[in-house]
């Protein structure tokens, strides 16, 4: 490095003879530093003007796609707050107050539910309560989604078949809503993902051994970290962002959880994925057939009833899966303005011989009647991915019942 006494002359020569940079092995940053030390002003000479590259994504604006469904009890009289919470959650759980609490004490709840076109993010702050999803509730409910929960504060204990899982900040709890469970929670702040079981069908389904477990360590932190970053952007996400965010959440959940549960041989896993693909195709191609039954599917796949049940266990069973696909097909027909068939005729197409039975099954699945959809279609109400063909007064119940069907 030249001495400071030579700085002025050296800088002058380097400016006019830049090839000398190679001789002295100096960078332009070092040249500027020399100029600053010498008190002289360094003037950079360029053959071409500097062209700044603006960061990608800055300045782009798009209308936010998501508006949360909000539920809170602060505006209600204290003696009505817990009853309102019970009714709100009845589609999913039976809830009870702790023995030490009384309805007149009030019950604080704030819940925001965000629908990412097929995955729900539920942000929730609640007082302490007990909860149960009984075997009878599971049997008669079409809801068999996976629920993945992490806590920011508080603690919960959830039991199934004598096995209790504790959840607290730093852990992630994985639970199937297609299986019975019960437990209690302290006052807590939590975030839950609710993902349809069918969302993992192309991976052979999330293993049933994932149910009633808590995930810790770096895998839990990766999942919590990504979900936290998504939460911070929920109010800014555009419609075009949703598919990517949803896919990332689905893949991260599967890859974080599945490798840690009971090992499945790779060949068996590939075989299971192939069987599910074949089963879904057969069901879709035979939705209108009254002969589409679990036995018919078992014969097509050359599987025993036991093996067939295992294949569809995470989907709530074969019959439940077939019913959901039929209801989805009926919903699509009723929401199509070009389809002029009557409600009873649509029911016949998907295998119902009675309009009353079809209407009951449809209402049970979606939370509203088939005639409601037909009327909405006739009035020309817009149908978009942002607001699927459901009544504009979306409820927690309707979101859960239709999740993954659109």
Automatic annotation (TrEMBL):
Record carries keyword Transcription regulation: yes
InterPro entries on file: AraC_XylS_family_regulators (IPR050204), Homeodomain-like_sf (IPR009057), HTH_AraC (IPR018060), HTH_AraC-typ_CS (IPR018062), Tscrpt_reg_AraC-type_HTH (IPR020449)
Annotated HTH araC/xylS-type domain residues: 277-376
Record's keyword terms, sorted: DNA-binding, Transcription, Transcription regulation
Gene3D superfamilies for this protein: Homeodomain-like
Keyword DNA-binding included in the entry's annotation: yes
Pfam families named in the record: HTH_18
GO MF terms, alphabetically ordered: DNA-binding transcription factor activity; sequence-specific DNA binding
Stated name of the protein: HTH araC/xylS-type domain-containing protein
Natural source organism: Brucella suis (strain ATCC 23445 / NCTC 10510)
